[in-house]
Amino acid sequence: MSKANQLDPLAPRPNLDFSKGVRGKYANRLKQGTNLAIIDLDLLDSFPDSESVNEALRTLKKIAARSVRPAPRHRKTATAQ
Questions:
Q1: pLDDT, tens digit (0-9, with 9 covering 90-100), for 4-41
Q2: Which pairs from 76-80 meet CB under 8 Å and 24+ separation?
């Protein structure tokens, strides 16, 4: 095969057969979206499943909401007349 055929994305691929494919089979799943988080190996013992990750994130969210301080208010100063 020449280098031109290897780089051409439209070149025929004899090992792929889409004759039994169904158009839009997974379209609904794709519309729903997916949130995926990769957990490092050192955290697997603390977070073995998605339920434990969700629980930890909810707890962190509650703590963060309680620790947020309101923005300081600017006081008006007296002006000399």
A1: 556 677 877 778 788 899 999 988 888 887 777 788 99
A2: none
- Report pLDDT digits (tens) over 49-72: 889 999 999 999 999 988 877 777
Contact call for residues 52 and 46 (beta carbons, < 8 A): yes
Q: How far apart are the first and last CA of the chain?
A: 90
Count Cβ atoms within 10 A of the Cβ of residue 53 and give its class: 0-12 exposed, 13-18 middle, 19 or more buried: middle
Q: Which residue has the tokens 């007296």?
A: 78
Which has the closest alpha carbon to 54: 41, 40, 66, 37?
37
pTM reported for the whole predicted model: 0.44
Backbone torsion region of residue 33, taken as left when φ is above 0, otherwise alpha when ψ lies between -120 and 50, otherwise beta: left
The pair of three-digit structure tokens given for residue 68, joined into one six-digit string: 């947020």
